[in-house]
Amino acid sequence: MTTKNKVLLGILGAAAAGVVIGLLIAPEKGSDTRKKIKNTAGDWADSLGHLWNKGKKMAEDGLDEAKDKGRQAKHAADKLKENFS
């Protein structure tokens, strides 16, 4: 895991903790607070799921592009071998 990812996860964790603490000390009924926490956690889980899927798709696209470039390079190298053989 890169330093950039660690920092991002740390920020997200701190933000989540801040939201939960803020909800817990808010002067509301416990049942209302629990509903808010549940809804907020669900929203964050959905957002993280979408972010994960987007990152996965980008990684797959990058891998496909790298494979295509590798095939092109191999083809070019094979042509060079034929020309100099």
TrEMBL record:
Instruction: Provide the alphabetized UniProt keywords.
Output: Membrane, Transmembrane, Transmembrane helix
**Where does the sequence pass through the membrane?**
6-26
Which InterPro entries does the record match to this protein?
YtxH
Under the heading Pfam families, the entry gives:
YtxH
In residue numbers, the region (Disordered) covers 65-85
Q: Which domain of life is it from?
A: Bacteria
Protein name per Swiss-Prot or TrEMBL: YtxH domain-containing protein
